Amino acid sequence: MSIAQEDLKRIERVAVRAWPALETASLEGWLWRYSGGGSQRANSVSPLAYSGDDVEASISQAERRYQERGAAAMFQICDVAAPPGLDQRLEQRGYRLQEPCRCLAKELTLTAAMPSDVEIAERASQDWLQVYCAGITPSRRQAAPAILARVPAPRAFLLLRRAKTPISVALAVAGEGVVIAECVATASAYRRQGASERIMGALEAWGAGLGARIAALQAVTANAPAQALYAKLAYRPVGGYHYRVRDQ
Q: Which of the residues 4, 17, 125, 173 has the least number of beta carbons within 10 Å of its own beta carbon?
């Protein structure tokens, strides 16, 4: 899938909104984020825009903020990070590369049908959290409820059951003609049975119903099962990101 640079910027902006940190600050246009650990996204700088004139000073300011909280300085570097050359600057300052991810996307049509067996809610229920939290680390599990409660509308917590048992979930967040897929998870006993495909179909239909023309998600490059699933669903690489971390 070919995609315009402006569309890629829209995807990245909505993705930032879709996973809000518990504490933020604006640093010359960068979004400094901190949530006490767990999620890398919610504990890193999102440098999608830059209005300053001293990049090195801005990096140092971000580092001081993390140091004050006893955390390692971290930046999320995507293909539209600003200013150009930021990744190289961080590498020269001793930041190591961590967890490359791919941005995957597909075009949507208004003909997408909503699966009848997928529940849609504005908040994460205990059943939804049960499925999602079973597949994440304890540190992420601790921070997730507070972050999920801050996700902005329009949002949809999607839940698929089988014989009343919650088996698959996803979070959809829409904006700027884009719907972002977050927290896609299926209970281990029900994997490879089509549950993730149904939950993603519901997410796409929900987004299309709000006028989204692009569905997108971000997946760890090394996660082969996830990459295979999204390729099967016609998602194609349109960009990528990674983290730069300066160890304490």
A: 4
